Amino acid sequence: MPIQTYYGDEICRVDGIKYAKDVLRASIQAKLQKANVFYDRRFDCAIEDAGTRYPSKLQFDSTHSNVVNMVPSGAKVLELGSGIGAVGAALKQKGCYVVGCDLEKGPYTQSFDRFEMADLDAGIPDFAGESFDYILCLDVIEHLNKPEEFLDQLRAVAAQMGAEVILTTANIGFVAMRISLLLGRFEYGKRGILDLTHKRLFTFATMRRAMESAALNVVESKGVVLPLPLILGDSPASRMLMKFNRALCGFWPSLFGFQILLRAQARTGLETLLRAAEHTAAQKLSTGASQIDGRAA
What we know:
The chain is of the alpha/beta class. Helices cover 40% and strands 19% of the residues. It folds into two domains: 33 residues; 210 residues, Rossmann fold, CATH 3.40.50. The protein has a seven-stranded mixed beta sheet, sandwiched between helices. It has a two-stranded antiparallel sheet with strand order 1-2.
């Protein structure tokens, strides 16, 4: 039954059932967008504060908390794509030496020992003369135009320094993505696996193959659970669901892992061997020259 709705002197006859359905659908879509399950530009009107798009995930089981636990106290760490700097700041509290690198300085990077402003799409900056125990690339590679070239450079830097690489990225093979595709949906969002800024997407198999092709030997592979506290809040329900997801990750990480976490070591390439040979030769020449000068004296 049409409802007579008055706008001033004008009568607008609205189909009440259809109007209610439209309101219900818009409300559900707005809630799903807030949970980063759905995206529609009409609902993208909130102003984001610094650090709200990619917030810290140190308070619960996540890639951030896993990496902080992996890196030992006192280690020298290079974080490529440091973002807001929450991970580096947590490592500083463990007594680590931390150097960050990103397009802009995040709010927590003030505690870093040094920060290098750079666009990783243009290449990894030259850190000649410095050595690191760990190189972190957390949720970076999916934002790059040419991830294969980045991995080649990463291998060269890691081999030169003898550093271990810890890399994380979203898992496009996550069960929710597979179900969405089965239903014919491929929804981008403000955060999550289908982040609007993601340029390349990986499964466990394709990420491992990309690293092996770049001469980075994967020594550990791990599936990381869905960050439910960011969606549902820190509640008993979210904690219980995370425990269930954690158990499933241990059983089948490529299907139930929301994110991929890999630890890798660089294979020594020809360029590294030549550089080491040149360094050894220069040292021998310097030693020989000093001995000759000593005899002459």
